[in-house]
Design a protein that fits this description.
single chain, about 190 residues, alpha+beta, Flavocytochrome B2, Chain A, domain 1, 4-stranded mixed beta sheet, about 35% helix, about 10% strand, MAPR/NEUFC/NENF-like, Steroid-binding protein 3, heme binding, Cyt_B5-like_heme/steroid-bd
Length: about 190
């Protein structure tokens, strides 16, 4: 085989391969840019909503733990309430999270402070007595209380908390944490 014949043979094989490669590259979708415009991006849905500035003034309506059970999300005509450290929040706007059969329904219609502090979804932990929580779990519980306070309307307070929790709450409200004197740091 002469070099001219070899050249023709290689050319015949390469032309279809080049044609197919070109066609494939032109039909491939363009790579997705990590700097895509924000107008095209869909917002990510999260249960962690932003703090609200349109909350109603807090109410101080008294609830017993038995009364609170009526607001567990099982009756669509009633609001859904969650109590944390005795503060009752209206979480009806997040029925997709706290409603009947939903992921956090375990806390609906009750004070589940201990479970929130422990980050537990066990029914046995969703109780109001958080007196045995360690300092780290109490911080988590306080963070949850702060989170709810910024996002949900306060509709009342639980009046029949366990005695040990009630005593703790009264002691902490009578003796607030000391405020540091800002001028002492000068």
């Amino acid at each position: 085989m002469s070099s001219v014949d070899l050249f023709k043979y290689v050319l015949v094989l390469l032309l279809p391969a080049a044609y197919l490669a070109t066609r494939y590259l032109r039909s491939a979708p363009p790579p997705v840019s990590s700097t895509a415009s924000t107008a095209e991006e869909k917002p990510v849905k999260s249960i962690m909503q932003a703090p609200r500035d349109d909350l109603a003034p807090p109410k101080d309506d008294p609830f017993t733990l038995a009364q609170l059970k009526e607001f567990d999300g099982s009756n669509p005509s009633k609001p859904i309430y969650v109590s944390i450290k005795g503060t009752v929040f209206d979480v009806s706007a997040k029925a997709d999270v706290y409603g009947s059969g939903k992921s956090y329904n375990i806390f609906a219609g009750k004070d589940g402070s201990k479970g929130l502090g422990m980050s537990s979804l066990k029914e046995a932990d969703a109780v109001p007595d958080y007196s045995e929580l360690n300092d780290a779990d109490r911080k988590v519980l306080d963070d949850w209380h702060g989170f709810f306070s910024k996002r949900y309307n306060v509709v009342g307070r639980v009046v029949d908390l366990p005695a040990v929790v009630k005593q703790e709450r009264e002691a902490s409200s009578e003796n607030p944490a000391p405020v540091a004197n800002p001028s002492s740091n000068l």
